[in-house]
């Protein structure tokens, strides 16, 4: 899975954090590596923990997922 988190206000406005890894949705908690970013998060490294709280796999495919991101960056 490739995922970018974009900041649209505050101290990190315009910066992004990029995740890349396998997202095994049936695991309670998944770990995904932070592989970089842009702006304040250029050369960022770390990991994200994803936890699914709700998932409707039968009708809409909607899910509510919490991401806790732990990142080291040079600012």
UniProtKB/TrEMBL annotation:
Superkingdom, taxonomy of origin: Eukaryota
GO cellular component: apoplast
Protein's name in the database: Dirigent protein
Cell compartment(s), UniProt: Secreted, Extracellular space, Apoplast
Family per similarity comment: Belongs to the plant dirigent protein family.
Keyword Transcription regulation attached: no
Any GO BP: phenylpropanoid biosynthetic process
Subunit-structure text: Homodimer.
Stored InterPro entries: Allene_oxi_cyc_Dirigent, Dirigent
Keywords of the record: Apoplast, Secreted
Organism lineage: Eukaryota, Viridiplantae, Streptophyta, Embryophyta, Tracheophyta
Role of this protein: Dirigent proteins impart stereoselectivity on the phenoxy radical-coupling reaction, yielding optically active lignans from two molecules of coniferyl alcohol in the biosynthesis of lignans, flavonolignans, and alkaloids and thus plays a central role in plant secondary metabolism.
Segments passing through the bilayer: none
Entry keyword annotation includes Lipoprotein: no
Species whose genome carries this gene: Prunus persica (Peach)
Ranges in coiled-coil conformation: none
